[in-house]
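[scheduler] slot 2 assigned
[scheduler] job type: sequence-to-structure, two independent chains
[scheduler] chain ordering preserved from manifest
[runner] begin chain α
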Amino acid sequence: MLPPQRILYALSLTLLPSSSSSAFVSGTFSFLRPSPFCITLPRSLSSSSSSISLSHSSTMPYQPKGGHREQKWKEKTKTDNSVTNRLGEWSASGSSGQIDASVQPIQFGRVQVNKGPVQGHKGIWKPKSYGTVSGSTAVEAEVPVDKSKVGFQGNGAGLARPEKSSSGSSKLFKGNLLENFTVDNSTYAQVQVRATFYPKFENEKSDQEIRTRMIEMVSKGLATLEVSLKHSGSLFMYAGNEGGAYAKNSFGNIYTAVGVFVLGRMFRQAWGSEAAKMQAEFNEFLEKNRMCISMELVTAVLGDHGQRPNEDFVVVTAVTELGNGKPKFYSTPEIIAFCRKWRLPTNHIWLFSTRKAVTSLFAAFDALCEEGTATTVCRTLDEVADISIPGSKDHIKEQGEILEGIVARIVSHESSTHMEQVLKNFPPPPMEGAGLDLGPSLREICAANRLDETQQIKALLKGVGPSFCPDHSDWLGGAGDAHSRNADKAVLSKFLQSHPADFSTTKLQEMIRLMREKRFPAAFKCYHNYHKYDSMSSDNLFYKMVIHVHSDSAFRRYQKEMRSKPGLWPLYRGFFVDINLFKASKERAAEIAKTKSTIVDDDGGSGMSGKHGLADEDANLMIKLKFLTYKLRTFLIRNGLSILFKEGPAAYKAYYLRQMKIWGTSAGKQRELIKMLDEWAVYIRRKCGNKQLSSSVYLSEAEPFLEQYAKRSPQNQALIGSAGNLVRAEDFLAIIEGGRDEEGDLEKEFVPSSPSASTGDTIPKAEGLIVFFPGLPGSAKSALCKELLKAPGGFGDDRPAHSLMGDLIKGRYWQKVADERKKKPYSIMLADKNAPNEEVWRQIEDMCHRTGASAVPVVPDSEGTDSNPFSLDALAVFMYRVLQRSNHPGNLDKNSPNAGYVLLMFYHLYEGKSRPEFDGELVERFGSLVKIPLLKSDRNPLPDPVKSTIEEGMNLYKLHTKKHGRLESTKGTYAKEWAKWEKQLRDILFGNAEYLNSVQVPFESAVKEVSEGLSKIAKGEYKTPEYRTPDSGKGKIGAIVFAAISLPITNIKCVLHNLGRKDGPAEAFLKDKNLESKLKKAHVTLAHKRSHGVTAVANYGTFLHKLVPVDITALLFTDKMAAFEACPGSVEGERVISKNEWPHVTLWTAEGVAAKEANLLYNLHLEGKATRIAIDPPATIHGPLEFY
């Protein structure tokens, strides 16, 4: 079988001169989802048609390098800038633009290109059918009706279009239309999805488990691995001028204004004088076909990431058909074809379709993860990939050398074939606007308009021009002025109460109800729809909704719900919908009901579940791999600024040490980073004083510091990666009012500070110990502390133990604990106070770091819920205990009028973490965890009255905090409701006292178990448990330096022993070397990344962990060193070839002689300066091939 070709594609295109019009040369291709993939070109084209020629071996001869190399194709540089041919052989207008009648339509997912247009008209894609990715029969999610009768053009509701209201604008702002809009049996709701990005799938497996599964799938021919660059920017989505421009969780602000400006400028660069026409056509196309394109917006004006880009640009990352049902995402070949048709920027893509390629990829990343930059990463991936498609925006030229990372995901195993066909038929388009004066740049406009955000928005939209952005109402309101777009909160409730007019509305209502019922951390923000205000009437209302997910835990929890409810729509990132509330006549209602009865949910082509015949879990396999050179800037420097300036250098050091532990940073890099970051902390605090450096412009200070630091040594240069050539951002930074951070990564990517406790398996006893309690009132911590202090023998060692009760301390409790720690540094402190959040945990970590102590969290045991470490059963018991006690020092007892509210407040402090996440984070921070037994495992379920009362209190708490924040429950709008609920809580709990008493573990048993756990820790006998957290397995695989075959040391010693017995010179040499005790490990080095390059090391990935036979053929030695001559054998029929000229096993070197000097032994033997004793027959030893 011939080896698979590795192809770097770019194609030359030969054209005859075209007319001045930039219309497309006509032709067709058929892009069909069912396999086999095919592209059909017309049999004949007119004189203005293009001919495609693929550069073959005649122009790119096969040139093997050093042994077996596979054929590679590279993209030719395009030399003819007059080329006007476009994707799909589109027609060129002009007298010669005749169209061949044999031309067939183009199918892209659910969007089809018509047959060739008539003379003088441009080819435009038009919707045909809603087919599936897998090629199954197309099933429409909704049945379209007469578009002339609907509010959302093309939607299935068929509501009547109203007359324009003369007072539409004023009604819209005053909100009286919604107030007077009552929901009854004739009320319907209809949604139109406007923008979505891929769902955020949280892998429950570790990175290593995901890698293993990916390798397995590719090896079996079930899938291909696709890798793309992760550009460092912000998510930007565009659905046309009518559809709207969107950021991750917002619209109508500076983020989207910048995005529209940059995208519009990209059109001008690509299309030149034809840009205005193409911009208008693009808007029309997106709206007509209900599509949205998602991009990474890379710019220097919206705040610093890893490196300020040299240019402002976008890269298309997704193309979505929003249609009448579930959004459908294009495959990468389809994205590239779409982008080349419209001349939009594409990303750099690599495909790995063989086991050797995919194992080499992961090995290459591990070799580069701590030092990789854009140049080294792209070059290495080009060498190991089967297919490489360069992006239209060069990361090195446009953004710089600092590369955030790469994204690897499983795609159809036919992807390589599809990609090859697309690349053959759609060459990279020309840039006709290159060299033209495009007017003021983004940075110039932002610099000239520094008054406020609104001024910058207006200037940017004006700069975009009317052809691309004729309507500014999303930003400036219906009258062109700044406005408040927020709609009444009643929109959501009336939407959920209304009958769904179509299938999409049914599914969205289902999603929102579930998220509200399960209390997911998300908001459903409704806004006025200014595009529709002229159509507003008393029985026809229009709004926009943003589904804003506040925490990644919501995505994880939603995934679990999808597994049990397969019909649920995915929860998308960047999720925007238009809402129409309307009244329907009996006739319309009957028509809607008839339409809905014919609907079948079509999941085909969603690209999100079961795609290409893959199981759901495999279809969503994806892994993000980030580079240390990026992370040290964003995570360690930028995200650590608030800790450094607010909490000081010790807390900052604890923070960055924990980050490095989570990433699995190598010991050598940790030492280098500690030295650099400590110096940075001193430098920036000295320069800025007490005024914190802004995260949005942190590179203004960090870049010069890193540049100077890198110049000191090659080691520092490798650590930093690249620095210098600073782009000054202060003069043109966009004004973001209210401190918004659209991407949420300026402060929120940070993971709180590092554990000061030992990071090993045991907790050392020669230091102080802080025992603290992340729990709720009623968890019996004070009673537990008293019993622990009374226990005979204390904690099993001689350290004194004492307690500090929080309810008796006035002022700052944790500062008091710190003071006590200084007085008694080797004591055991029982911190008798609830420690409910990460802010307190960071204080404890900082205290441990400064006073040389370990900290042990003691928590009540509980199953928890999907979003809280404590179950409702546990909360009920805590409430019951609190309401039983009297004369409590903190006044939280049966006489407290708001005891239930206080318990709910504490309970919600833990919201957002499941029990495994909660336990795992505590163990990651502090290295240990002790649990207080609370509830019996064989208990009966919580009685319904208790459960419903607590849930009622939670709903009331949510209403109260939303309106009043932390205001006491005895005050505010809901004071009466709280008083009623507090009485109800007492009645219900005491009415179920028998149950609540029976389910609790006896206190004596709890004390005994906690005491034993703490004694193990105090004695240094504790073993750290394994917990799976969101960070577990992330980046902990380790950096690779070299590949080697590890040989069992006993076998090596056996060969030495036998050789000494048989050979006199060998025996004489070995006699005084004492290798029996000195020789601890042995290996045959195959390749080293410093000597042989990253690719050479990575290519051994296919043999990783496999046993390799090694023949030991001779012993070579001098008076300074000795080594075995080694010859690696074959694995599964493939020879393992060492990159070293002389493969060997180093056995011994004299004092002061480096082990690498053994490489010279063979040459020394040839020169007569070393002794060689042959081993005949050779001794064969088997050992695994590993990376080190």
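[runner] end chain α
[runner] begin chain β
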Amino acid sequence: MNTDHQGIKVKRVTSRKRSRDGLRSHLTPAKKRTGSPEEPEGGHAVLMMEEKLEGDCSDQEDLFGDYDSILGDRAFLAKLEEVEFGMGCDNRVASDPGFDGAPHSPEDGYMALRTGDSKDCSSADVVSSLRDTFMDELPSSQLAFQQELLKKGAWSTNSSASPQTGDATGRTTRGRPTSRNRKDERDAEAQAKSSVTDRLKSAMRENATVSSLGVSTSAARKEAALTKEISAAMEAREAGPAGIDLGPFYGLPSKVKELISKQRGIKDLYDWQKTCLTLESVQQRRNLIYSLPTSGGKTLVAEILILRELLCRSMNALLILPYISLVQEKVRGLASLGLELDFLVEEYAGSKGRFPPVKRRKKKSLFVATIEKGHSLVNSLVEAGRLQGLGLVVVDELHMLGEGKRGALLEMTLAKVLYVSSSTQIIGMSATLSNTEDLQKFLKADNFTSDFRPVQLMEYVKVRDTIYEIHPKEEECFNFSRVLNFKYSSSMQKVDPDHIIALVAEVIPAHSCLVFCPSKKNCENVADMICKYLKKGFLKHREEEKARLLQELRESGAGALCPVLCRTVPFGLAYHHGGLTGEERRLLEEAYSAGTLCLLTCTSTLAAGINLPARRVILRSPYVATDFLKRSQYKQMVGRAGRAGIDSLGESILILQEKDRLSVSPAVLWSHWVSFVSCSSASPALRSQAKQLLSSPLESCYSHLMDANGQGIHSLILSLVGLKITRTLEQIRDFVSGTLLGVQQSHSCQEKSLWEIVQDSVEFLRHKGLISVSTDCENNTVLLVTNLGRATYKGSIDLTYCDVLYRDLSKGLDGLMLSSLLHLVYLVTPYDLVSQCKPDWMVYFRQLTSMTATELKMASVLGVPESFVARKAAGQSVRKPADPEVVGRLYLALVLLSMLKETDLWAVADRFRLTRGFVQSLLSSASAFCSCVLHFTEELGELWAYKALLTELMRRLTYCVKAELIPLMEVAGVQEARAKQLHGAGYKTLCHLANADPSLLVQTVPNLSKRQANQIVASAKMLLMEKAESLQEEVNELLSLPADLPSS
């Protein structure tokens, strides 16, 4: 071609505009030029421009600047016509058999084009050379368009008209065209002449509506490196032998190690962790149970295995935790990892969670769930036929299998995973497992056990003022250690006969201390008692931090502050139990971890919840309420002693009193008398009891499917039939034989055989109208679930209440009161909480007298007339007693209604004379039960009217704040007080939080640390990403071609 064109090499990455007046060329429209009217000539000018571009441009700049469009530039279109005309000439010249139509390299062809070289080249080669050179440099919006053209063959030439042959030098030549071929070429030229312009105009219009992706080359290189490492790890996993390190970081990219080091401060793994991660069972993805003492680092191993599943195998994972607070903490902690490594963290706790979860084509999800939500999640995946997409299930605190109703739910969940999906790996971990043989058989798992502790633990027992060191494995269990040397006045001796003040004064404030108490009230009393006798110097220790903590506590209570905390926090002390709100517990936990508080008096629930280690752990009594401590409870409590990386050792001290000897039988007393004769200061009964607690084996873990007259086995069989996992009695028996109950038949099924239990359970379900018996086409007896049965298992409704709930909902339709929320709130008030709250009749009566006439009528219809409550409040006898379940449930509904109206937790708790922790727990339970009732009504057509009503009510119960704060409270870790602060600072939406600068948040939001700000922003980004991905998946689903589309 003899045209004089310049090649401008341009890379567009971001949409940020920047003036580039100095880089205008003759391709720039005249109205946009601001430089010299003289145009540069030839290739030298172009090379100079390229050098300037290379020197001036960064991958974050937009080289197009404010260059709007070239569609209106006739000069450019004229040059395009010249190019097209040249392409036509090239085709005619190329018909000469002696013409060398292909340059030696794409660069040769490109230089010939841009320098105006007299050497001609074919149109195919010109286009090919342009394509090869510019494709990698196109903006992201244009690249997708050009790739689409390539797929359609827009860049290909008419090869049938001029077949290519290879010469001796490897270059291609074209055959002579015939007259017919010439006509085809002319037609093609004419078509190309019009189509190229049209395509270019169309592409430019399309580019104008597409936003470019803000991805830098450095980010792209990092992403490519991460992808390469993940691919290498996957290949090594498939090809490498078992028992060896499969990747830079145990099969994971090195970026994971960097993130763990940066975010957790963990530079290296313990030896037991390295051994566990390289076990043959782990490499071959067999099920595994591992058990270590508390604070040994079990969770990190589980997280590494989860990351392997998400990144290397591209499979979803499920992490089951025992408490809502632990789920929320884990979601906050893993959100930043998910953002860095491109996976989603989804919360399934309370009323949160989608069933079944969104099916994602690209990103994989980690579902973090409570035991109840984990069971519902597995059920939904089984019903949708997607359980095989769940690659890994991790259960923390596996000993929960032996914890009543919740243990039965966990057993059902794991049994279904084992039966339905053989490819899903199960990992269980715990610090207190005894009969691991039964659990191994149930889970078909290997076992790994270690007694590793990062900090040495020294156990002691205190009797009167004497302390004995414990040696559980030795015959002489107790060895004299020392006598307490603390001067007690007569008044102190009366207030503190157990010398708790002396024990804590030895370690605080330089070190931390936990004091476990048998009851909530005892926690408050002990904290109050200790601070009264501490020196005034404690008030000066971290004075500013403690003042800030009091302010945060006051803000979380809308200006109210517990008087006990008001007295104890200035001394660095606080109590911690279920009577506190979730926000109060979080603030106290963070203050304790930071060293602002040096002592917590707490109940046993702290040992099973968040990890708060201490230098010294004191057990105020060997009781939890009125029950003597179990060995597993004791191990969890003393396991908090010793802070890794801070303390060189940890101490636990169990306080025993003379009265405790009454719980030991004379036979036990006599058998241990000889062993403890040297310990003259303690009674034989006391020493025997202590040894039994300190050196006996852990309690065994047994199935609870048969508890409460077999409610667990009934629920299991109902879901098996409803999910079509089993359909006959024989199949049900085979399934049940694989559960923990089946493994422990000799212990749990002593009165009946497994076959009899299955038959009785099926009959029970048939009698309640939850399943029916039918025959298939081969006259075999099969079991089918009824509509009520399906609603029951999909709503996770307790079989004890399913018929009562259906009756209440059906009756409510006849006269549903919508002028007030009271009727709806009553219908979603949990049945099982009624026994935990006895009505205060005077409060009850005052609430009824403040009701509207419609509300009073509704209460009377339910069976709670005003006259009944008035008589109870006056202490008079009642002629016609009311149903105590209905009375108690309506009382709780009034508490919930007050919360929805006022949203002031402290005021409502004070009015009803309840602890604020119980009110908050009631609100959370009602929200979760409302979600269950919603799923229950969705399966029953006659209850269709409840769907819209309960959806909005569930949202209000979940957050119980003003509507403007709800988007902020969706973020994990953001409670009402923090949401108000964020909203006041201008962060009013989820998008605001996701795009916030953590440093700016710290400056604008009071009492917000940098770590908290980072967690909030990361959690908001994760939630925003999850919502965006869900919407995108819905779009893809709507636009995808149906698999069952009828064909002609």
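[runner] end chain β
[qc] chain β: The domain at 456-661 is CATH 3.40.50.300 (Rossmann fold).
[scheduler] slot 2 released
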